[in-house]
Amino acid sequence: MTKENSEWVEWGKAIVVALLVAFILRSFVFATSIVEGESMEPTLEDGERVIFNKIVYLLDEPDRGDVVIIERPSKNYVKRIIGLPGETIEIRHSELYINGERYEQTFLNEIDLQRTGNIGQVHIPEGSYYVMGDNRAISKDSRNGLGFIEEESIIGKTEVIIYPFSEWAVTR
């Protein structure tokens, strides 16, 4: 085999390995999702593309404040975890209480805080989570249609906004 042919073979191997690694990462570690609707504004806006981490919850438990992807038969939802398994939550006068203690929702602006409304005491079953969108006035979430979210339905944690390019950011 000539030196030129040997180089082509090496390049071919490198490309195959790169494609295989990309496939494995895309299938098992990271994936992308497009935000549909305005329920997570201002954190995430309609049409933004996000990368979500599919492996993080195999290593750790979902935590309060995480922006997660929830898999449902009809479509996936992007929501923020508010309540954890076994907790009791309540919203009075737009303030969130967890197990009777006031919790500061630093990820919301004043307008969205006021739009939350009141929620009587809700006890979250073990193995389930309570989620809400950041745009509380229009969000379909645990309050009004999604109900409690079982841990198996949470398929990833949003990590980075990748499109549009002007909006690149790490989600919080």
Question: Strand content of the residues, in percent?
Answer: 25-35%
> So, CATH architecture?
Ribbon
Order of H and E elements: HEEHEEEEEHEEEEE
**What is the CATH H-level superfamily?**
Umud Fragment, subunit A
| CA(first)-CA(last) distance | 54 Å
What is the number of helices? 3
CATH fold node name: Umud Fragment, subunit A
Helix content: 10-25%
Q: Kindly state the number of beta strands.
A: 12
**Category by helix and strand content:** alpha+beta
Q: Taking all residues together, what is the mean pLDDT?
A: 84
How many separate domains make up the residues?
A: 1
Poorly predicted runs are: none
CATH class placement: Mainly Beta
Shape: elongated
Radius of gyration: 20 Å
Helix/strand layout:
Layout: H1 3-29, E1 30-34, E2 49-53, H2 56-59, E3 67-71, E4 76-83, E5 88-92, E6 95-98, E7 101-103, H3 110-115, E8 119-123, E9 128-132, E10 149-150, E11 154-163, E12 169-170
Antiparallel strand pairs: 1-2, 2-11, 3-4, 3-11, 4-9, 5-6, 5-8, 6-7, 9-10, 11-12
Can you offer a commentary on this structure?
This protein is α+β, with helices and mostly antiparallel strands. It has one domain: Umud Fragment, subunit A (Ribbon).
Features of the shown structure:
single chain, 172 residues, alpha+beta, Umud Fragment, subunit A, eight-stranded antiparallel β-sheet, four-stranded antiparallel β-sheet, 3 helices, 22% helix, Pept_S26A_signal_pept_1_Lys-AS, protease, hydrolase, Signal peptidase I, EC 3.4.21.89
